[in-house]
Amino acid sequence: MTTLVFKLRNVPDDEAKDVRELLDTHHIDYYETTAGNWGIAMPGLWVQDEDVQRSRELIDDYQNGLLANRKQQYEEAAARGEIPAWYTPFVTRPWATLGTLLFCLFIIYALLSPFIRLAVTS
Question: Containing domain of residue 56, as a range?
């Protein structure tokens, strides 16, 4: 039997490539499935049952290292002031942001107005 050890849906190409190389360097045979023609199947990496524990440990170690690396990169970028704040769109493009907000309010009004009129008239 085979077991799914790594899901490939929404995984960046470089991370998927690294996991494939990790399994190859440790001589773990795997089978890769794609999402299929319509994108509804489960893309992933499957290994034999006897290799599940070892491959899971390798993948977990890789992902923990990747997480630590990404956290460090984020903290360094935040220290340099490169991470935009939540209010950055208001400051950089105030008219476009205001227009987007007004459009969203109009959509909400258009969706709710029939129900409000129904409640008022009855």
Answer: 2-80
